[in-house]
Specification:
This protein is of the alpha/beta class and 244 residues long. It contains 7 helices and 12 strands. The strands form 2 sheets. Strands 3, 4, 5, 6, 7, 8, 9, 10 and 11 form a 9-stranded mixed beta sheet that branches. The protein has a 3-stranded antiparallel beta sheet with strand order 2-1-12. Helix 1 runs parallel beside helix 2 and helix 5 runs parallel beside helix 6. It starts with a strand and ends with a strand.
Length: 244
């Protein structure tokens, strides 16, 4: 079912479909992770319905955003989301491994990605082709994503991704192989005592070795409520999220 949701009352909103890419915590975490500067040129690789890009624009409306997505149905929702909010976003339909029509190659300041987490044939099974491509590396691998990110970024540009902790070595190896030197890492935990469930990583094209590990991002307090940081990530400090 198609839905429309706002980030905060009177704020920007987004379209999504339960059968395509329902909004997840990982998208919100990635949208809050990179440092942003006014007017930066940004590309979301594997943008889905465009939620991560919208979250970045909600933080910094002056960004110049490009979405790259393999599947037409989610990208159509991304286009409608941009139009509904009055954002000018370039939408690119195609395979990030082979597409050649991105005009700003070598000039992007920031590339973000919420890539497929599982090797092809691994992870939770899903009969829907759209979700299968989103969750498994049937359409592209983490090495494909890092290779394209490195080609898009200017020298000194930043790549940011959210990924699974059990595949952290794969992510860091793929980044370094493509000269995206890992510079910042943050583990995400449901509670202060639980094992990490996600990892946020940032690399710099042509950066010098030297990795900063931020304090873990804790999602829930002992009483089960959301932490203040998670509330800020979900824009609840600007008002409770609501369905329209």
């Amino acid at each position: 079912m198609e839905r429309w949701e706002v980030l905060w009352p009177g704020g920007p909103g987004f379209f999504y479909d339960d059968a395509l890419f329902p909004p997840g915590t990982d998208a919100f975490l990635l949208g809050a992770f990179p440092k942003l500067r006014r007017g930066a040129l940004v590309c979301d690789l594997g943008a889905g319905t465009g939620l991560v890009g919208l979250l970045l624009l909600a933080r910094e409306p002056s960004l110049r955003l490009h979405n790259v997505e393999l599947q037409a149905a989610p990208l159509a929702l991304a286009e409608r989301t941009a139009a509904a909010n009055g954002f000018s976003v370039r939408q690119h339909l195609g395979d990030l491994r082979t597409m050649e029509d991105l005009p700003e190659t070598g000039r992007f300041d920031l590339v973000v990605s919420n890539p497929p987490y599982f090797p092809e044939g691994a992870g939770p099974s899903c009969g829907e082709e759209t979700l299968r491509l989103a969750r498994s590396e049937a359409g592209c691998t983490i090495w494909d994503v890092c290779r394209r990110a490195a080609r898009l970024l200017r020298w000194g540009g930043v790549f940011a991704a959210v990924y699974r902790p059990d595949r952290l070595c794969d992510l860091l190896e793929a980044m370094r192989t493509q000269d995206l030197e890992p510079k910042r890492l943050r583990l995400v935990q449901h509670t202060a005592s639980s094992a990490p469930s996600l990892v946020l990583a940032e690399g710099r094209r042509g950066g010098k070795p030297g990795l900063t590990v931020d304090p873990p991002l804790i999602l829930h307090r002992k009483d089960g409520g959301d932490t203040e940081e998670l509330e800020e990530i979900y824009f609840r400090r600007r008002g409770e999220r609501e369905d329209i």
